């Protein structure tokens, strides 16, 4: 039985006041809405020198907000360049398809003409045989 007791691992339960052991505490933590808000409407209070979001009422770091705007602008410019490149590729593709369509129509006209000539020759041969 002592072998089985040695195999048992004792779990240590944390004390309820272990939070006091932390040397950092968070006060005035942001709400869930403030953490997830994209801050679509911001205001600058010039007299109190505060920059905040009017949707979630969170005070914003101006540098972080400008950095976010700069990243968004860079993303938009990259997206525009990608879309312009894609538009150029599509224009080239459309031009190729139009050229292929024109060539196909010309081949079709040529084939119809050849069929008409063949039918006419056949008709002449049949009439020549009958005469």
In short:
This protein is mainly α and 131 residues long.
Task: Explain the layout of strands and helices.
Elements: H1 2-7, H2 32-36, E1 42-45, E2 50-53, H3 62-130
Antiparallel strand pairs: 1-2
Keywords: Coiled coil
Coiled coil: 80-114
Description:
The chain is mainly α. The protein has a domain at 38-125. Helices cover 61% and strands 6% of the residues. It has three helices and two strands; from the N terminus they run H-H-E-E-H. It has helices spanning 2-7, 32-36, 62-130, and strands at 42-45, 50-53. Strands 1-2 form a two-stranded antiparallel ribbon. A hairpin with a 4-residue loop joins strand 1 (42-45) and strand 2. The longest helix is centred in the C-terminal third of the chain and has 69 residues, at 62-130. The mean pLDDT is 86. Keywords: Coiled coil. Residues 80-114 form a coiled coil.
Total count of helical runs of at least 4 residues? 3
Order the strands across the largest sheet as they lie in space.
Answer: 1-2
- The low-confidence runs, each spanning 5 or more residues with pLDDT under 50, are none
Q: Strand content of the residues, in percent?
A: 5-15%
Number of strands: 2
* Average pLDDT for all residues: 86
SSE string, helices as H and strands as E: HHEEH
Q: Which geometry do the CA atoms define?
A: elongated
Distance N terminus to C terminus?
Answer: 123 Å
Helix coverage percent? 55-70%
The Cα radius of gyration reads 40 Å
Helix-strand makeup class: mainly alpha
| Biggest beta sheet summary | 2 strands, antiparallel
Keywords: Coiled coil
Coiled coil: 80-114
């Amino acid at each position: 039985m002592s072998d089985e007791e040695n195999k048992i691992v004792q779990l240590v339960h944390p004390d309820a006041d272990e939070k006091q052991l932390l040397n950092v505490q968070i006060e005035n933590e942001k709400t869930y809405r403030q953490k997830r808000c994209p801050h679509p409407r911001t205001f600058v209070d010039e007299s109190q020198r505060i920059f905040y979001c009017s949707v979630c009422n969170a005070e914003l770091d101006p540098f972080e907000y400008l950095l976010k705007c700069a990243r968004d602008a860079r993303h938009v410019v990259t997206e525009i360049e990608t879309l312009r490149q894609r538009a150029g590729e599509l224009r080239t593709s459309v031009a190729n398809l139009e050229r292929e369509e024109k060539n196909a129509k010309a081949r079709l006209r040529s084939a119809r003409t050849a069929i008409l000539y063949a039918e006419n020759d056949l008709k002449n041969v049949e009439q020549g045989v009958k005469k």
